[in-house]
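Case study.
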Amino acid sequence: MTSHGFREITFSINGKEKKLHIDVRKSLLEVLREQLGLTSVKQGCAVGECGACSVLVDDVLIDSCIFLAVWAHGKKVRTVEGEAKNRKLSKVQQAYVDEGAVQCGFCTPGFIMATTSFVEKHKGEKKTREEIRKDHAGNLCRCTGYQNILKAVEKCINSDLVK
Amino acid sequence: MAVGKLVNRVDAVAKVTGRAEYTDDFYRPDMLVAKYFRSSIAHGRVKEINVEKARKLPGVEAIFTYEQVPRIKFATAGHPFSMDPDHKDVADRLLLTRNIRFMGDEIAIVVAEDEIVANKALKLIEVSYEEYKPLIHPDDILKQGAREIHQGSSNIVGEHRYECGGKVDDALKGADYVIKGEYVTPMVQHCHIENHISFAYMDDLDRIVIVSSTQIPHIARRIVGEALDIPLSRVRVIKPFMGGGFGNKQDVVLEPMVAFLTLKLDGRAVQINLSREECMTGTRTRHPFHVQVKTGFLKDGTMVARKMDVLSVTGGYASHGHSVAAAGGSKSSFLYPRMAIEYHARTIYANIPVAGAMRAYGSPQVIYALECATEDAARFIGMDPIEFRLKNIVRQGDVAQVTGKEILSCGLSQCLLKGKELIHWDRKKKEYEKYKTGPVRRGLGVACFSYASGTYPVCVEVAGVRLVLNQDGTVHVQVGATEIGQGSDTVVAQMVAETLGFPFENVRVVQAQDTDVSPFDTGAYASRQAYVVSNAVFRAATSLREKILDYACLMTGEKHGKFDIVEENIVSADSGKFVLTMKELAVDSFYHKERGGQLTSEVSHKTTTNAPVFGCTFVDVLVDIPLCKVKINKIVNVHDSGVILNPVQAGGQVHGGVSMGIGAALSEELLIDPETGYIFNNNLLDYKVPTFIDLPEINHEFVETFEPTSGYGNKSLGEPPVITPPPAIRNAVLDATGVSINTLPMSPHKLFALFKKNGLMDPKGKADV
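After joint prediction, the assembly is written out as follows.
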């Protein structure tokens, strides 16, 4: 650690290498929001209960509010900002739009990262509704009752199966 | 034509890409952070407070205590201003207080360069209290000589009684049977995923700009003015995207404080971003209700009398005060209108967190009691609960007793019949007869509700909309109606497209409310917006359409009435032949040197009607006796909300409401220590909001009626879905087990006690199987 509790980290964020001078006390959530302006990463509880701050670190879904930013050193971080490319939504984002899975939208970025990780992890596999529910149970939504989110996830899984 | 069609939300892409900006996303590097110093006791008075050590901490900008705030008491409820002096909200708050009324009451506030420093400073504040016994149970609160939580209040915030449809006591005497019941609902919390957050700064020497997650920007502006005694025009409130509210942000919680702080700190930006724990006990909750019901009915199942006595607990401050118990009483009265009804309610203070508005505003509590009592009456005479309800419920053409107004649209009977079919009532009733003993029991339940589409005639119902034709032939819409996630911007766009004849994609709703520019509207509450705004939008869009068609006449020299708008073109009304594009017309209106001007239309409209809405929940449950667990096999909500503007969004509202209702029925409760007033579970781990795996598939269906008092035939839908799941589940558990569970939630520890008491388990807790 360098003096005054700061440290330099290097990591990949949405496909781009980044070097940052960070306060070692800061969570990944804080650093992504405050230093990189990645405000899709939402804080709902700050203690890993709600999942609104979910991001992928080396393709593993984590709550960035309880993941220290220093731990991201040398790793690959993905947020929802990196998912839409060339003015085109990702398959998961498009499914959320089409199935009406979005209401207030505050849990949405975290959910989309959860689904993205789920869909990538189980590419080409058939998944039951119970498996989808269980896998997404770390993300809370108070608006939708999860009904249309379930449909959006199923749509992503099924579209993979067709291909 | 856009109304009733499947269109995607206008803000969906902004939200899935993470580009939608919420209050916390307007990051300013110079912004200060403020944190409340909250009381660690529930009832008492600060003897002494010492903030000197905290003030010296590097990074602390300022600390204010109750001694430094204006001595102005203000009311926080997000109601429109009332010109009736008897209908004012209770002004019982100061910005900070010396008198402690619940655990977490706000004594001082620290302003620091960041949250880490602010939290450190809080630990350095020294305080000593004079402590009083917390008043938590109604008996203690109302006991003769009990300490007054607010001086001069006798601990009563409000009380009212009404009687309609005849004399209840006479009607009870004429009844074949009279049954009594007592029903209790607990304190639950909204748990919107975005906590309360506001920040304020000044953009000159006088003007305060507040950015806030609020359902009521125009009301917040007025209340900030009242709390700080400054003219309302010096306050600007901006509401960006918002992460849910459910009524908790229909209250002015943080705005006066951030405004005060920026005023004190020479216009520096100051933010308050509550933690989840603070949000769950330091904002608002749902009022716990204690309800006694007496029901009189005849042998044939006709209900003749109902007497309700309600005690509503508002906690440490009035907030919405007695309005919640009052609204719950009046909006539920449409349901069974052909009987004598007496409704008496009192709202009392208590040393527990403050209750305010929450989705359906008193109706979930009142309807829970009412629909448990109705079920009990039906069972008493052995009548099928659907038959019993069909005999007594409201029909189109009935007169609402409380308002004296005829009910112009009502599809409740069809809702009940539809639900009966969807849940396979008759077949399952028979099938489940063999599941009334043993460890696994099954049952069916139903409950129905009535609600309203706004607050008139209690409050003013006003909506404003402004339409502007752009140079490219599209239209921009500004509304005062507040999008909080429920989808109001989308249905407004649909309404505008419908009346103008424009493609839906060519209508752009400005997605933020800003009191400097947004037309006046009182905000998102009472499920009012789509109903109230429909009357303003219809008028504004009709007027803009006329202006466009007139302008087409001006451009072509044709007579009025010759043209029509079809999609992006002006066409001949007779032949449908193309005349010119909307873009050509718009360009001419803006840039022709002699004629025209920007084509706009603005309407502020007061709605002086209030359409009742109706619906019901059907549920099929399995009760696991040894585990004391209720499993929902199937749940169906059927709603009459008039014309459905957007089927997917409407379905989404039902899903969210039902899930919140299931939470209230089975797992949600803020647990209060009866001795100290401490809340045991103010976090999302211990407070059981339903997760993905806790919810069954939620089915919904609409019985579409046409409401003539609404611009597009639509009525309210946002809140109602939350109302009936708890009583329907209670009635299903009763059907399955024979045990009446008259307090919520029906959690395993409660079922364990009741199953033991009723002999379903032996005294050691072993299931009698």
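Observations recorded in class. The longest strand of chain A covers residues 6-13. Chain A touches chain B through 57 residues (CB under 8 Å). We will return to this complex in the next lecture.
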